[in-house]
Design goal:
Elements (H helix, E strand, L loop, with lengths): L7 E3 L4 H13 L6 E3 L2 H6 L1 H6 L1 E8 L1 H7 L2 H9 L1 E8 L8 H11 L5
């Protein structure tokens, strides 16, 4: 590990496994610094993710959510309680005003 003191939790697995992870995270005296998950899993357990405060939200491959995501998925991402947000795109942003607006909306939900 490049930062040995960094606590990282991979949030995935069956419904029962994720429930155990949620309990461990909530009951831990030292919650993880980083929680890694997929969009699919985040949307499955959106209620839990939406109740927690996050210092930093890093979203990878956001162009896929922006162009193909449902309004509910985008709303979920916007409603996550994050102090800071970083979006990572693997390709060039399309010259589409709606996609650009959605990108800005994900970055600055209180502004757009």
């Amino acid at each position: 590990s490049w930062v040995p003191s960094l606590l990282v939790t991979s949030y995935n697995g069956s419904s029962a496994a994720r429930r155990r992870l949620r309990e461990e995270i909530c009951l831990s005296s030292q919650p993880p610094h980083v929680v890694l998950t997929s969009y699919r899993t985040l949307f499955l357990d959106a209620d839990w993710f939406l109740t927690r405060p996050w210092s930093l939200l890093v979203q990878a491959e956001t162009q896929n959510v922006i162009s193909a995501g449902s309004a509910d998925q985008i709303r979920t991402l916007v409603n996550l309680k994050a102090q800071r947000r970083v979006l990572l795109n693997s390709g060039a942003q399309k010259a589409n005003p709606i996609d650009l607006w959605n990108t800005l909306y994900l970055l600055f939900p209180g502004v757009y």
